[in-house]
Structures are given as structure tokens and as C-alpha cells.
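pasting for ref
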Amino acid sequence: MKIVFATNNRHKLQEIREILGPDFDIVSLSEIGCHADIPETGDTLEENARIKAEYVFSHYHLSCFADDTGLEVEALNGAPGVHSARYADGTDHDSEANMDKLLRELHGQANRQARFRTVISLILSDDNHASGSCQYIFEGEVKGRIDTEKHGTQGFGYDPLFIPEGYDRSFAELGESIKNKISHRARAVSKLAEYLKNR
């Protein structure tokens, strides 16, 4: 099954392809000729995922899904949350700057509990709902804590700081094979895959 993943983030694309496996032909935005910077103007992860999926479907009329992911830190009242990719002032997807800001915000903080949450919005072309009124939402989360310093070189985003529950190493240390089984995105994508396979 061919389906568009509304991203040009090569890390996300690779992760999704590995999780979904050979049953699905996952193509990126650039592969369908979409080079637009789709605005993420929503106040929630759900809204941003929906906005991106609706944009692709309304412009290209292809089955597609979009995700939005946020790191929610308990001591920061859920921040950075929907602003995770642009957490550091004046930046856009600057992982180092985002992690440095997070470490500063949590300096001296005993409570370092956090969770990663991914929301996926799916629109299927054969549903014939160009308005996006019939969508499917899948969510996954993983709980853990924020370390006091970065560890590991694999992964992306906040992976060097996030230690998932039940482990003593960061996502960036655990590596893709383990992360892709236990992560927030893996859990959301597994629900997406189950739905697609059972249609």
C-alpha cells in the first residue's frame, strides 16, 4: 500500500519505514513534489497532525498521514509540548539549542519526570472526504525522565536526554532497534499499521 507521510524529516521517515516494514510504501512530501513548509498553527499535537494531513490530502488527493510529537515535562507544566521543535527562542528544529534550554530550565529540579507523546492523523483517499471530516487518530506515549546531561549519539531531537521508563540509558544510547520497539512513535504507528492491515 502506498501512502504519503507528511514530512521531509529524513530521521522520522526512516523510523516510520522501519516500524511499518515492507507491507507499506511510505513516501515523503518531497517524493510527491510537495516542498511547502506546512504551517503548524495548532495549539495541540492533535491539531497540528490534522492540519498537515488535511493540507496534503486537499492538495494531492493521496492517502496520507501526519504526526506531531511533543516532549511533556512534568515540572514545566507540560512544556515544551506542542512547541518541542521550536523550544529554544528564535530556532526551528535546532536540537542542540532545544536540549540546552531544557537543561537550563530543569537546573536544580528534582522532579525530572516526562513523557513523549505522538499523535498521528490519517486520511485515506478512498474515504472520499476531501474536507478531512473523516479522519483517524492514533496516539502513542512513553514515560520516562530527563537526564542531567546528554548521552549517546543515535536518534534525534531530545533523544540524548530522555531515559525511558524501565531503562537506565537514553534513547540515543539504546539505539534505533530498541527505540523503534518502545517509543511513543512506535506505539502510535503500530496502532496505525494494525488499522490499515485490518481494513
